[in-house]
Amino acid sequence: MIPQIALVGMPNVGKTALFNKLTGSFQKVANFPGVTVEKKVGWIHEGGQKVMEVIDLPGIYSLDATTLDEKVTKDFLLLKEKEPTAQTFVLVLDATNLEKSLFMAFQLKQLGYKLIIALNLMDEANKRGLKIDLEKFSQALEAEVIPTSAATGSGLDSLIQAIKRHQGQEHLQKISLPENFQKIFRSAEYVNGIFKKIDALLKEVTLSPLRPDTFSEKIDFFVLHPIGGVVILIVLLLLMFQTLFTWSSPLSDGIESLCGYLGEIVSHNVSHPLVKSFFVDGVISGVGGVLVFLPQILILFLFIQFLEDVGYLGRAAFLMDSFMRRLGLPGKSVIPLLSSHACAIPGIMSTRVIDNYRERLITMMVIPLTTCSARLPVYAVLIGALIPNTPVLGLSFLKLPGLALFGLYMLGFVSAMIMSLIFKKTLPQSSPSMLLMELPPYRIPKLLNLVLVMKNKGAIFLKKAGGIILLISIVIWTLITFPQTNGESVIENSYAASIGRTFEPVFKPLGFDWRITTALIPSIGAREVVVSALSMVLSIKEGSEGFEENMSAALVQHFGLGSLVALLIWFVFAPQCISTFAVMKRETNGYLWPTVMVGYTLALAYLCAYVARVLVMLWS
Amino acid sequence: MTINQAPLHKKLIITASKNTELSDIESRLLHLGFIDGEMITIKKKAPLFKEPLLVEVRGRLVAMSSSEAELVNVEVIA
Q1: So what's the pLDDT on residue A35?
Q2: Which stretches within chain B are classed as H helix?
Q3: Chain A 49-108, CB below 8 Å of chain B: which residues?
Q4: Which of A8, A97, A331, A603 could form a disulfide with A317, with the two C-beta atoms 3.0–4.6 Å apart?
Q5: Are A322 and B68 an interchain contact pair (Cβ–Cβ within 8 Å)?
Q6: pLDDT at residue A537 above 90?
Q7: Which helix (H) or strand (E) segment is A6 a member of?
Q8: Is the pLDDT assigned to residue A178 strictly greater than 70?
């Protein structure tokens, strides 16, 4: 076993930046057992060998934990009471915020921890005029204090040397907790006492004080301006959303054409039609269906981490909080909700910016109702079939189909808001909903952090969701391929069609016949596939000239107005694609919530589609 | 008065805070530096609903909703 180091510290002290700098690309991200709190583990290498394991514990203000993240760190730290270990604890302090970050130093020292203190952001503090007597500081805290800068990497070598000296001493971390420690930690008297000690220490060691951060104040004048700030936020979010679309679509298209190319190679080299179809339509398109999400995930997390590192995320939450809270959601949910208009997958993954688990869960549950881009091809064909291309109120730029599309977006958005209010009323309150947070000063983001976040998020998606998505893609391929008729796959005779026929009576009130219910089965893989599935059952060749027009005409001819409106409304709410299900399973750590999500969206889809069809029948 | 009733940009001093049976939020308030005798200033109120508030405490800005601000008693000193 190689020695283990745990990084402890308050949020926003640059702990993760330090972790990234120490471990570089040698890290992996998983969940702590049983909870959806991120556990980051990395390794320090020397001469090609792993020499130390580093754990980046979630930020914590005190051993009196209030949030899930803090409880994880608290449990990790307090376990040492029962089993003393040879771990080294590195407490990371923010040199520009010693007045608060020293709290944990005193608390852990009192309990008997032997700490190494990384006095991080020391370069920034020096620039703002802070000078402290490090020797006195170190003596008072009874710990080795190493000034570091995760930004420039200065002090990291000294930190590693200090850790080695500490390990060389071979002592075990052994702590003694007072009786009723929970009660003591949570008392104003105790907290006041530690803050008094902090003030006394700082008075003694400060040679020249820290100047106020006028730079952040100047930027905040604009960014947090009552009107200007909101305008900046909206412009920023729209730009982000637009860029997410424009940057990711060529990449996703590239992945799709690459899969197409691979498919062609296989087609040319495999003669057996069934084996060929298995690889081309099952495996390659399944892998493609997984990879196609990567660009959006990577780009969204690049943006989010950039906003977080620059210090803007908390400010965005501050600006949006009172508005979003009236809809049952916290301020920080604007980012997941907006980005899920591109795709629900990165949207659901990004709900981790929300600290409170219940609010994170509510946001995840309503995200599938927002109109993701995979619905657009379905909407395009159905709107084309249903709605004449005539101007509204004589305005040439505003036409009925556009208005209908807007209506569908709004229907998704409004139902998401209604559902979030319903979930807010019904889900049990586990920990209090808190806005309370420190806004960090503005800082320049570090490329390393951004790259590592993208790498880790991409890896999590591929490992934890990719498998399920691929598996179900192959199951769906099996359903539409077998049993074969005269050695050929005909969708009308497939298992999918038998399932479709079985469910036909259930969907009769919506006006869906077996052809529609059959086409809905592959759409569980990805919504947009319903268009090609419908074209198959209607025997219209996809990719042929005037495909959309032909499809639209055939749809009206075969199914009638009422059923098509019902189908359109159906797609506002359901089906949720398997990727959404898989990601949600990973993010909620179980099958319960993804099942509830699928259940309620199906119910909502059925109900609304039925109402829509009845309304159409009454009207015409 | 409590923080949410206090005026903007004035120096406020925290008085008479609760000592026993603290809730999670009250505990977090303490750890963010909202302790007896501490000087704070309300820097901003968010648009639209006049909350959340942005309060300077111990050299840092803290964002808090009005229900959180209600939990801290203050007096105006300047």
Answers
A1: 76
A2: 24-31, 66-69
A3: 61-62, 64, 66, 97, 99-100, 103
A4: A331
A5: no
A6: no
A7: strand A4-9
A8: yes
CA dist., res. A374 & res. A289, Å (int): 12
With residues binned 3-state (H G I as helix, E B as strand, rest as coil), the percentages for chain B, rounded to 5, are 20, 35, 45
| β-strands A49-56, B11-14 pairing | unpaired
Q: Do A64 and B31 touch (CB under 8 A)?
A: yes
- The pair of structure tokens assigned to A613 is 């069809």
Amino acid occupying residue A413: F
Contact A163, A18 (CB under 8 A): no
Q: A493 Cβ partners below 8 Å, 6+ apart?
A: A483, A485
Q: What span, in angstroms and rounded, lies between the C-alpha atoms of A413 and A572?
A: 10
Q: Hey, is the C-beta of A443 within 8 angstroms of any chain B C-beta?
A: no
CA gyration radius, chain A = 28
- Taking each helix axis from N to C end, the angle separating A357-366 and A592-619, rounded to the nearest 10 degrees, works out to 40
What pTM was computed for the model? 0.84
In A341-387, alpha helices (H)? 344-349, 357-366, 376-386
Mean pLDDT of A384-394: 78
Task: Identify the band that residue A544 occupies on the pLDDT scale cut at 50, 70 and 90.
Answer: low
Confidence check: pLDDT of A75 > 70:
yes
* Cβ contacts of A209 within 8 Å, gap of 6 or more: A129, A130
Cα separation, B73 vs B69, in Å, equals: 9
Digit-coded pLDDT (tens) for A407-422: 898 999 899 999 999 9
Contacts of A565 (CB under 8 A, 6+ apart): A386, A612, A613, A616
Question: For an interface test with B, which of A219, A436, A438, A443 has the most B Cβ atoms less than 10 Å from its Cβ?
Answer: A436
d(CA A327, CA A320): 11
Task: State yes or no: pLDDT of A523 exceeds 70.
Answer: yes
Quick one: DSSP state of residue B50? S
Asked if the C-beta of A435 comes within 8 angstroms of chain B's C-beta atoms, the answer is: yes
Query: A284 near A189, Cβ under 8 Å?
Result: no
Q: Does A379 touch chain B (CB under 8 A)?
A: no
Question: What ipTM does the predicted assembly reach?
Answer: 0.93
When scoring A63, A93, A191, A329 by the number of chain B Cβ atoms within 10 A, the one with the most, hence best to mutate, is A191
pLDDT-derived band at B47, boundaries 50, 70, 90: confident
